[in-house]
Amino acid sequence: MDKKIIIAIIIILIIILGIVAVVFLQSNSTNTLNTNEQNSNRESSNMNNQNLQVIENENKNMDNNTEGAVRSAVVYFSATGTTKNVAETISKATNSDIVEIIPKEKYTSEDLSYNNDNCRANQEQNDKNARPEIQNTINIDDYDTIYLGYPIWWGTAPKIILSLLDSYNFNGKTVIPFCTSGSTGISQSENDLRRYNSNINWLEGRRFNSSVTENEITKWIETLEL
């Protein structure tokens, strides 16, 4: 056979073997990629499932903690702003919701003229049947513990506090009264409120003046047995 023909045949065989080798390598590479991709997908799926399980467990723990937590609110009446300042500090220190008792008829400075026997506040305090109307709806049912704030009027709590107790069911709830005044203590108002509704779990309250500090309020809260 001609030498040139033999060489040509050898070259053709080499080319064919090269093509076969390339095809084989490409096939293996594709299979490897597919396998790696499948493994990666499986790992990603497993990780996602694990993450979802962790999140689900955390949510369950949060739900359980929420169910067991004591929810509290600061409910207050403030005609001049002094009680409001104390209420906001208590709300912050206890992480409680805060709700203002808003009278339907706002109290003016003339209404609170303590030297005037005929002023509105004086007339209400001297009328055992007086129950000033509350403008806003106050949610009580969602709370176990309520910090109840008010100024001292003529030695005791304003009659709008009795309006609150008449309007909502406080029975069985823990209520901690706090008041603001220049000098009069809280004991008379505490006794009056205890007598008015003895089904409430009343805790000992505290009087604050307008210059009370956040630190003093926080220390008082720490002494409460809740």
Beta-strand fraction estimate: 5-15%
Q: Could you say which overall geometry the principal axes of the C-alpha atoms support?
A: rod-shaped
The radius of gyration is: 38 Å
| Biggest sheet character | 6 strands, parallel
Number of helices: 6
Name of the level-1 CATH class of the largest domain: Alpha Beta
CATH superfamily of the largest domain: Flavodoxin domain
The total strand number stands at 6
The H/E string reads HEHEHEHEHEEH
Mean pLDDT, nearest integer? 84
Give a structural overview:
Residues 57-66 have low confidence and may be disordered. It is built from six helices and six strands, in the order H-E-H-E-H-E-H-E-H-E-E-H. The radius of gyration is 38 Å and the shape is rod-shaped. It has helices at 3-68, 82-94, 120-126, 159-167, 187-196, 214-223, and strands at residues 72-76, 97-100, 145-151, 174-180, 201-202, 206-208. It has two domains: 1-69; 71-223, Rossmann fold (3-Layer(aba) Sandwich). With 226 residues, it is an alpha/beta fold.
Q: Can you tag this structure with a few keywords?
A:
about 230 residues; 6 strands
Topology, pairings included?
Blueprint: H1 3-68, E1 72-76, H2 82-94, E2 97-100, H3 120-126, E3 145-151, H4 159-167, E4 174-180, H5 187-196, E5 201-202, E6 206-208, H6 214-223
Parallel strand pairs: 1-2, 1-3, 3-4, 4-5, 4-6
Helix pairs in contact: 2-6
Brief characterization of the structure:
With 226 residues, this protein is α/β, with parallel strands linked by helices. It contains six helices and six strands, in the order H-E-H-E-H-E-H-E-H-E-E-H.
